[in-house]
Amino acid sequence: ADALISTGLADLGYVYVNIDDCWSTATRNSKGQLVPDPKTFPSGIKALADYIHGKGLKLGIYSDAGIFTCQVRPGSLYHENDDAELFASWGVDYLKYDNCFNLGIKPEDRYPPMRDALNATERTIFYSLCEWGVDDPALWADKVGNSWRTTDDINDSWASMTTIADLNDKWAAYA
To answer: Where do the coiled-coil regions begin and end (predicted)?
Structure first.
């Protein structure tokens, strides 16, 4: 957050500070809630959100439409309502929702429950679907989320960038 401000990036429209996988502990608490890793976030996520909001920026968080995240932390599949309420109570503004450990359930069936749970919180939370383009999200995801991935992860190479650009040619009509 501080770097977005000090470098002028916030003035250019960069407003989200997003936390990716591994922000939580390896298990849920006795109430079934996700728990921020106390070593990484000793004051919790709400305090972080308050700090970021105080800078005029927004906080994003990561979860997964599977039983685990990609790094084997608790996922949100079958916990959508509780997790959405928790994210809203913390002041989260953005959710990246990944596609690991999904039990073979189609994305079109796994992603809408979190959409509905987020909408029920009455907090505006940008919903980013990260299903890697597996089931052609350009054909269905606009009814579910605010944005969606169309390919697998990008790597730090020119070949990776050009490959992903080439893979997206088929989606030009939907842009």
So the answer is: none
Q: What is the CATH number of the domain that holds 124?
A: 3.20.20.70
161: enclosing H helix or E strand: helix 158-167
Number of domains in the chain: 1
The CB density around residue 93, as the number of other CB atoms within 10 Å, is 23
Rounded to an integer, what is the distance from CA 81 to the centroid of its chain?
15
- Residue-level pLDDT at 134: 82
State the residue range of the domain holding 75: 2-174
| 103 torsion bin: left (phi>0), alpha (psi -120 to 50), beta (else) | left
Mean pLDDT of 89-95: 99
Report whether pLDDT(175) > 80: no
Residue 91: closest CA among 40, 54, 116: 54
Confidence (pTM): 0.94
The angle at the Cα of 23, spanning 75 to 73, to the nearest 5 degrees, equals 30
Catalytic residue positions, numbered: 98, 153
Question: What is the per-residue pLDDT for 125?
Answer: 99
Question: How confident is residue 132, by pLDDT bands cut at 50, 70 and 90?
Answer: confident
